[in-house]
Specification:
- By secondary structure, this protein is α/β, with parallel strands linked by helices.
- It contains 14 helices and 16 strands.
- Helix 6 (142-154) links the parallel strand 4 and strand 5.
- Helix 2 packs antiparallel against helix 5 (117-129) and helix 3 (43-54) packs antiparallel against helix 6 (142-154).
- The chain is globular, with a radius of gyration of 23 Å.
- It starts with a helix and ends with a strand.
- The structure holds succinic acid (SIN).
- Succinic acid is lined by residues 113-114, 188, 211, 244-246, 402, 408.
- Pathway: Amino-acid degradation; 4-aminobutanoate degradation.
- It comes from Zizania palustris.
- This is Succinate-semialdehyde dehydrogenase.
Length: 440
């Protein structure tokens, strides 16, 4: 598909907006709830499809189906709680009201690393608010998107309310940006593409929300519970083989615990099973494509040429194709690509630090600001550091923090707006002020 099909989809979304947005909140809620039920009753098939097209291990794929479905369930409920306001008037013969209304047609551009959840986290609140949507899934994972859309149709969500276009990505993107009928762009993906979409939205002054790249620090203090820190940093680093925007990208370890942490962490990483995602024992699948492997290789070469040392792995896996060995790199410093940019692969750089101030400084020394993790047993320190970190999400003694009930999103160049939670609907609503005068 290209510009013509995208324009057709926009036209269909635009026509359907007038009927979908006029339904009662309860009617939209029921349709979303049915979609949720259908996703759950087809979860094995969806997970299988996801593992086949994306490569993530089947257990993780099943986890993503539940995670993805949870946004539909949550926003089916939230649809009924989109309240306006009544403002105390400044003149006695007036009444001042605030209505919340859907923004209109939404263009949603989603990535391959969460082929279902990144769609439902956008489409769930959009449909709940009364918007209609044109989704462009990643060209690497279109099948999960189509399967989810088919289930939406079966649930009674009208064809025009949820449209999926795939194919020529630049043409589709341009058609969405240029259309005056598309009133909002929501995107999850790289910071570079996010900036282009933001610039491209300026011409038609669209509302924009962006969930972009991260460079998550995972700070392990001397006073951490080592078992909790190992479990949490392993989960934060190796989820989806390191291919998430919230993956720990730099593991900052305080000097007093560095050696002990490094040897326990290496042992834990050695236990990760690389292989075919359809095998139950596999915990690490392949990377998405050859370019992803080459990026990891470039980062490793850069780090070793500047004095880092490979403590484990550091090369392509013997399985070949796009499998890469789970890797631990020691003595990483802030002049290396591994420190400065997202590796998006199964590589854990260990960075030693001396003081709490040093750790905060190193953690914030980046344009990214999505997720950060800290491990400490000190309650005052966990407050101090959480508040000092320039990030949208902070995990304290926990490496897996995403949930439909909490706001997800970044600061600085990691994005704009929040997804999920009660705040997630704000991105799909406009406020309308109504002043009723001469009431006496
Ligand atoms: C992402 O990597 O973009 C999303 C991760 C999550 O929802 O936890």
């Amino acid at each position: 598909m290209g510009s013509r099909e995208t324009s057709d989809a926009i036209a269909s979304a635009h026509t359907t907006f007038y009927s979908w947005s006029k339904l009662t909140a309860s009617e939209r809620s029921k349709a979303l709830r049915k979609w949720y039920d259908l996703i759950i009753s087809n979860k094995e098939e969806l997970a299988l499809l996801m593992t086949l097209e994306q490569g993530k291990p089947i257990k993780e794929a099943l986890g993503e189906v539940n995670y993805g479905a949870s946004f539909i369930e949550y926003f089916a409920e939230e649809a009924k709680r989109i309240y306006g306001d009544i403002i105390p008037p400044t003149l006695s013969d007036r009444r001042l009201l605030v209505l919340k209304q859907p923004v209109g047609v939404v263009g949603a551009i989603t990535p391959w690393n969460f082929p279902l959840a990144m769609i439902t986290r956008k489409v769930g609140p959009a449909l709940a608010c009364g918007c209609t949507v044109v989704v462009k899934p990643s060209e690497f994972t279109p099948l999960t998107a189509l399967a989810a859309a088919d289930l939406a149709l079966q649930a009674g969500i009208p064809a025009g309310a949820l449209n999926v276009v795939m194919g020529n990505a630049p043409e589709i993107g341009d058609a969405l940006l240029q259309s005056t009928q598309v009133r909002k762009i929501t995107f999850t993906g790289s910071t570079a593409v996010g900036k282009k979409l933001m610039a491209g939205s300026a011409d038609t002054v669209k509302k924009v929300s962006l969930e972009l790249g991260g460079n998550a620090p995972c700070i392990v203090f001397d006073d951490a519970d080592i078992d909790v820190a190992i479990k949490g940093s392993l989960a934060a680093k190796f989820r989806n083989s390191g291919q998430t925007c919230v993956c720990a990208n730099r593991i900052l370890v305080q000097e007093g615990i560095y050696e002990k942490f490094a040897s326990a962490f290496i042992k834990a990483v050695q236990s990760l099973q690389v292989g075919n995602g359809l095998e139950e024992s596999t915990s690490q699948g392949p990377l998405i494509n050859e370019a992803a492997v080459q990026k990891v290789e470039k980062f490793i070469k850069d780090a070793t040429s500047k004095g880092a040392h490979i403590m484990l792995g550091g090369k392509r896996h013997s399985l070949g194709m796009t499998f890469y060995e789970p890797t631990v790199v020691g003595n990483v410093s802030n002049d290396m690509l591994l420190f400065r940019e997202e590796a998006f692969g199964p590589v854990a750089p260990l960075v030693p630090f001396k003081t709490e101030e040093d750790a905060i400084h190193m953690a914030n020394d980046t344009n990214a600001g999505l997720a950060a993790y800290i491990f400490t047993k000190s309650i005052p320190r966990s407050w101090r550091v959480s508040e000092a970190l320039e990030y949208g999400l902070v995990g304290v003694n926990e490496g897996l923090i995403s949930t439909e009930v909490a706001p997800f999103g970044g600061v600085k160049q990691s994005g704009l707006g929040r997804e999920g939670s009660k705040y997630g609907v704000d991105e799909y609503l406009e406020l309308k002020y109504i002043c009723m005068g001469n009431l006496n």
